[in-house]
Amino acid sequence: MTSATLDRTAAPESADEPPKKGKKKLLVIGLVLVVGAAAGWWFLLRPSGPTEPEPGEVMTLEPIQVNLADGHYLRLGLALQLSADAHEADGSKALDAAIDLFSGADQSALVKAGQRQDLKHELEEKLHEDYHGDVLEVYFTEFVTQ
Length: 146
Known about the structure:
Number of domains: 2
Helix content: 40-55%
CATH class of the largest domain: Alpha Beta
Number of strands: 4
CATH superfamily of the largest domain: Band 7 domain
Strand content: 15-25%
Membrane topology: Single-pass membrane protein
Radius of gyration: 35 Å
Structural class: alpha+beta
Largest sheet: 4 strands, antiparallel
Order of helices and strands: HEEEHHHE
Subcellular location: Cell membrane
Transmembrane segments: 26-45
CATH topology of the largest domain: Tetrahydropterin Synthase, Chain A
Function: Controls the rotational direction of flagella during chemotaxis.
Family: Belongs to the FliL family.
Number of helices: 4
CATH architecture of the largest domain: 2-Layer Sandwich
């Protein structure tokens, strides 16, 4: 009798195992689907970061003369690339920033292309801040030293 009792107890254990494997299989499939859906949302539907503003009109300013060191001067013409949603921009802030940046500068430093680009980048950053992001880029239309 003991062998029959052992067989009966062994049979229910083997009957319980296939449903556990089936439940595990369903759980794994469900997890894979959830992870796949999350990854799909992350790569396809997530909100993107800040977008670059669209360029609008280019505002050309009248050239100005700026006194440099050692009696030299700089004739500087500027054009500002505004964003498409820029309000009416007044060029006086840009001219003031350019005068502050270039006045008293050494002429030999200004004729170096690398130094000129550094100063231009510095002016762009200042104008981006002063115009609250409405100025995207600065162009030199004139740059003459004497």
